[in-house]
Amino acid sequence: MHLTKKEEEMCNGEYGETIRKSMDILVALGDIYGAPELVDITSAQVSGVSYKTIGQAGLEYLEDLAKDDRGVATITSTLNPPGTDLDNWDKFGFPEEFSIKQNQIVDAYGKLGITKTCTCTPYLVGNVPRFGDHISWSESSAVAFVNSVIGARTNREGGPGALAAAIVGKTPLYGFHLKENRVANWIIDVETELSGADFGALGYIVGQNVGGDVPYFTLNNIPDNNDLKTLGAALASSGSVALYHIENVTPEYAHADKVNASQSLTVTKEDILQTRESLTTTDKEPDLICLGCPHASLEEIKQVANIVNGKTIKNKLWICTSISVKASADRMGYTKTIEDAGGNIVCDTCMVVAPIEDMGFEVIGVNSAKAANYVPSMCGLDVVYGDAQDLIQFE
Ligand code: F3S
């Protein structure tokens, strides 16, 4: 890979150890994927935050990197969810030792200049690239959203690659940064109207079929942004989709070259119903309903507030979101409505990256196909899949 004089100086350690290590990662990635050069980026989203997944070794690595004052993020850079509510972990019963370690990890990222937004929906809290921007994002659901719905350009980065890119302000130029790789290779014809958790079921079906390819959807009804984040999260977790197009909806659909897509799939109402059923793993009632995967928007919190207003919820209810979105929910009175009904808005974390398997829960009710996919495999718990209004039961 061609490097400029300054980039070579970075590689040689002339700008400090953290920048040298970051360049090592970027050059290695560029060499593996055949990138001709690095490209300037405007935004980074860094995953690899939960103590559950990166452990003590990850904490020590980050604290070591953060010792070098010169090695900090140079562009807009935000952080993925950690494994606890950073401020209210004791209130919700998150384990103490875990939560202390988790706060240390987030603090280390803060020293590296990564804004402690702690959300997988950075596009809801100010990290909003422009159409065509080169960026480096490493939360798979957010990658699908930002590539597809906003039209910025990123590969599915790993956590270390996105952190290195945040610090250097560049990423290797390959893959979805190049226009020719953003064309569709699957046509997905959806024969039924969709709502709510149907979008997760659709993403789950299509992800399993297309893997890491680029699907082009024709839908019978227009999805909103909440539907699109649900769809993208499912596509990115049951497959490894980084980019999709929807006819008349997403910004690059007209350039997706659908006539040359070589494969096709028809999705029927029956497929959606069967997949919704298959995502439920038990006949038991959920002891925790956990919504907000990806992290809930203000509109989704408002919808839940309307569902529970004036009632008493039977099971525990968590709505996972960022502290920024919760601040707006507080101001709008949604938080009080939900708490009066017995539910809670839990900040920062989620049902997958938190150690919920150590918190006494057995069955989790979810309206996200990504969560339905990962809660059994990453937490060892059963799930019930459905729409929020069906999952939440009242006294
Ligand atoms: Fe976000 Fe956790 Fe789902 S990180 S996309 S809420 S698994």
Q: What this model shows, in words?
A:
The protein is α/β, with parallel strands linked by helices. The protein folds into three domains: 5-179, Aconitase, domain 3; 183-277, no CATH class; 280-391, Aconitase, domain 3 (2-Layer Sandwich), CATH 3.30.499. The N and C termini lie far apart (63 Å). Strand 6, helix 8 (198-210) and strand 7 (215-218) form a beta-alpha-beta unit. The radius of gyration is 21 Å and the shape is globular. The chain has 15 helices and 14 strands. The chain has a five-stranded parallel β-sheet. Strands 8-7-6-9 form a four-stranded parallel β-sheet. A three-stranded parallel β-sheet has the order 3-2-4. The relative contact order is 0.13. The longest helix has 17 residues, at 17-33. The structure holds FE3-S4 cluster. FE3-S4 cluster binds at residues 81, 120, 141, 233, 293-295, 320, 350, 352-353, 370-371, 374.
SSE order and pairing:
Layout: H1 5-11, H2 17-33, E1 38-40, E2 43-46, H3 51-65, E3 76-79, H4 89-92, H5 96-111, E4 136-137, H6 140-150, H7 159-168, E5 170-172, E6 186-190, H8 198-210, E7 215-218, H9 225-238, E8 245-246, E9 263-267, H10 269-279, E10 288-291, H11 298-308, E11 316-321, H12 323-332, H13 334-340, E12 344-347, E13 363-366, H14 369-379, E14 382-385, H15 388-391
Parallel strand pairs: 2-3, 2-4, 6-7, 6-9, 7-8, 10-11, 10-13, 11-12, 13-14
Antiparallel strand pairs: 1-5
Helix pairs in contact: 2-7, 3-5, 6-9, 8-9, 8-10, 9-14, 11-13
The structure holds FE3-S4 cluster.
